[in-house]
């Protein structure tokens, strides 16, 4: 069965969607952020690995924790954003594989991979999920300003210390 999305929806998701650097003044609710997550989590990844872990930054205190790790050109737009999502990946994603994959051996096969293999797979699939996240955010009416101008090491220390999340 072929299903086609109408032109208005295609415009919202792709044709009219550009990187935003200014934001609407109203806050983004927890319910809306969860709606974004609820949509993106169903999209396909390798073996349903779903390594993405999302940290939403909305409070002034959390924004201040993020500020020193941002590139100079990204500080203002991030501080003014009603919500920022850190799209990270979990190197121990295979721990939840029994819930995510119909293959009963999936956890064991993934847990035997080298750290380099896990890092590559987690990075690749979380990047894919980051794209799904943007489409889901646009689908619920949010603007997106994807960026990579930040210190990975700094964000890892500040938000994910003592975990397998990067």
Fold blueprint:
Layout: H1 7-15, H2 30-40, E1 52-57, H3 60-66, H4 75-80, E2 84-89, H5 97-100, H6 106-111, H7 115-139, H8 152-160
Antiparallel strand pairs: 1-2
Helix pairs in contact: 1-7, 2-7
Model description:
By secondary structure, the chain is mostly helical. The chain has eight helices and two strands. It has a two-stranded antiparallel sheet with strand order 1-2.
Put simply, the count of helices is 8
| Largest sheet: number of strands, sense, barrel closure | 2 strands, antiparallel
- Extended strand count: 2
Tertiary shape: globular
The value of Rg in angstroms is 17 Å
As a percent range, the share of helical residues equals 40-55%
Q: Tell me what portion of residues adopts beta-strand conformation.
A: 5-15%
Helix and strand pattern = HHEHHEHHHH
| Nearest-integer average pLDDT | 92
Features:
166 residues, mainly alpha, two-stranded antiparallel ribbon, 2 strands
Quick rundown:
This protein has 166 residues and is mainly α. Helix content is 46%, strand content 7%.
